Amino acid sequence: MLGDITVADELYVVCGYTDMRKSIDGLCTIVSDHLRMDPRRRAIYLFCGKRCDRIKVLLHEPDGFVMLYKRLEADGRYRWPRNRDEVKSITWKQFDWLMSCLEIEQPKAIKVPNPYSKNLPDGS
């Protein structure tokens, strides 16, 4: 299905500022040359410009690349990590926070216990 982001196994925020004039080829070059990652893996790469009101999403499908573009119409801004030399792996919950213009690190968020961990008194 065209642009079905739920097929991705991994989500990556490309920190810092990205030139939002870049097309699919330019974003693939950032992923491969700068980040040393394979843009063809089943992953979503998220990019943001200086204005923080637009994002681009790069996704590889079996038959080619898809680039999604979102521009906020309200005065909201994405809370984008700005360390240029970093790519940050995020969870789907963090993706949801980011798309809601929240910080991806929510220290007061309720932690869901792992149902597979042992219920030991020390919490491990």
Write up what this structure looks like.
The protein is α+β, with helices and mostly antiparallel strands. The protein has helices at 24-34, 92-99; strands spanning 10-14, 43-48, 54-61, 64-71, 87-90. It has 2 helices and 5 strands; from the N terminus they run E-H-E-E-E-E-H. The protein has a 5-stranded mixed β-sheet.
Task: Summarize the topology.
Elements: E1 10-14, H1 24-34, E2 43-48, E3 54-61, E4 64-71, E5 87-90, H2 92-99
List keywords for this structure.
disordered C terminus, 124 residues, alpha+beta, five-stranded mixed sheet, globular, 5 strands
**Overall pLDDT score:** 84
How many H/I helices? 2
Radius of gyration: 16 Å
Question: Numbering strands along the chain, what is their spatial order in the largest sheet?
Answer: 4-3-2-1-5
SSE arrangement, N to C = EHEEEEH
Question: How would you sum up this structure in a few lines?
Answer:
This protein is α+β, with helices and mostly antiparallel strands and 124 residues long.
